[in-house]
Amino acid sequence: MDSPLTSFLQNEIQAKKDKGLYNEVDILSSENGPIIKINDRELINLASNNYLGLATNPALKEAAIDAINTFGVGAGAVRSINGTMTLHQELETALAEFKGTQAALAFQSGFNCNMGAISAIIDKNDAVLSDALNHASIIDGCRLSGAKIIRYNHSDMEDLRQKAKEAKESQKYNKMMVITDGVFSMDGDVALLPEIVEIAEEFGLMTYVDDAHGSGVMGKGAGTVKHFGLQDKVDIQMGTLSKAVGVIGGYVAGKQLLIDWLKVSARPFLFSTASTPADTAAALTAIKQLKASDQLQTQLWENARYLQKGLKDLGFTLSPTETPITPVIIGDENIAQTFSKRLMEEGVYAKAIVFPTVPLGTGRIRNMPTAAHNKAMLDRAIEVYEKVGKELAIIE
Ligand SMILES: *Cc1c(COP(=O)(O)O)cnc(C)c1O
Fold first, then answer.
1. 72 Cα: distance to centroid of ligand 1 (angstroms)
2. pLDDT tens digits for 286-301?
């Protein structure tokens, strides 16, 4: 007889396979740059979050190596005991300056940053208004907090206003917070932050923006909040060091008082070892570079516009994106999967994203152009799209 664990796992894995939701992981044998190697084949990479190419930047590599030589490979303790090094402090000062806030606090990942920060701020006596398309780490952070989760329809400001009004009038909650992604990663659309801030002011909501996909991309690199000039109006700005910044980690930027509180209450700060010297030094170097020049952002946006125009001119339908995220809508889930597979056979790596990550019938290929791509790579990708698109009768 199978053990309870084995039968549970077999059933669940089979159920996922039956629904076509069992993902096989591809293994890279190269760095995650504009060209990657999988199974000994070189592919044009349109799947990474390495927006600015910083994951493979020589200055960041050098900073990481220097940090290892000076500080070792591990921080040796959690931040609140003695794992905080001058590198962490310098990174946090740089982040606060970059974001235009009084202070900042770095975490080991964006995911644990949301888990730790949200649950340090709200609890079971509170309510959180959360956009229906918010990232999994926001959803988990909200659940962990025990607060009442009130979902509003994606970027639907009437729905948010109505639900904020009801929550306020019920007088059931000590505190209320609205939480949203700055850039939504499946469509590339941008949160309506000016309206959200206005509603928050009207109903006394705290505001929390997760700018994982906006940092380094929007607002000359400083993110979506800065893009809208709202750095004094958004209470809690969260971001990652793992997407455009190219390394790993997360952070919260805001008032000094907020950071003081997180240092004594955010559980990943208190109970999980500090990020490594190498990661911290590399992230610090990236933030300094982003502050010094917007050349990489300019290149990213130029490449994104070029790819988006090329695909539209061929007759493909893109999601209503406002950022470099370039989803090509295919529709049927199976055709989207086949499309991605055919792209790979032709030398282009781009992932299919299907239900339940996106609504049923809106299966898509999500393309992530970066500053590190050159025109020849993008032209080749567009050529391959034309071939596969005609073959699968998505375009004429
Ligand atoms: C990727 C992402 C995270 C998690 O960040 P990591 O640094 O990869 O853990 C959190 N929020 C959003 C919106 C994201 O896209």
1. 27
2. 999 999 999 999 999 9
